[in-house]
Write a structure and sequence with these properties.
alpha+beta
Length: 122
């Protein structure tokens, strides 16, 4: 979503909601009684749908009909009905899935090298 002019964008998928907050406002009143809001830009996420950077993690196959996107401005909110998304499939293998076997092999090789050097110099 282009963030210009938006205070937040809410992503709802299968009953879970996450919000990408883009601006935070503070209401004030001047000496003439005029109410106004000062906005500060920010960039943080909160909610139930897992996220990372500007991406959401959807477990299982993606059903675009279950994804509801709502954009909020300082004055109104509206449901985004025409949006594009990029699907990055994940094979489910975690960081530990390849690092732990690698470290285990290095450990075994160091242990064998230590035993060989110990027997050579004993």
């Amino acid at each position: 979503m282009p963030s210009k002019g938006l205070t937040k964008v809410a992503y709802e998928y299968d009953g879970n909601v996450s919000e990408h907050v883009l601006m935070i406002g503070e209401r004030a009143t001047d000496k003439n009684g005029v109410k106004y809001t000062n906005f500060s830009t920010c960039d943080y996420w909160r909610g139930d749908v897992p996220y990372f950077g500007n991406s959401l993690f959807i477990k299982g196959p993606l059903d675009p009909d279950k994804l509801k996107v709502t954009a909020y401005t300082p004055y109104e909110n509206f449901e985004v009905i025409d949006f594009k998304y990029t699907l990055h499939e994940w094979d489910g293998q975690s960081f530990a899935g390849w690092v732990l076997p690698f470290l285990l092999k290095i450990g075994v090789m160091l242990f064998v090298l230590w035993r060989i050097l110990r027997t050579m110099f004993s």
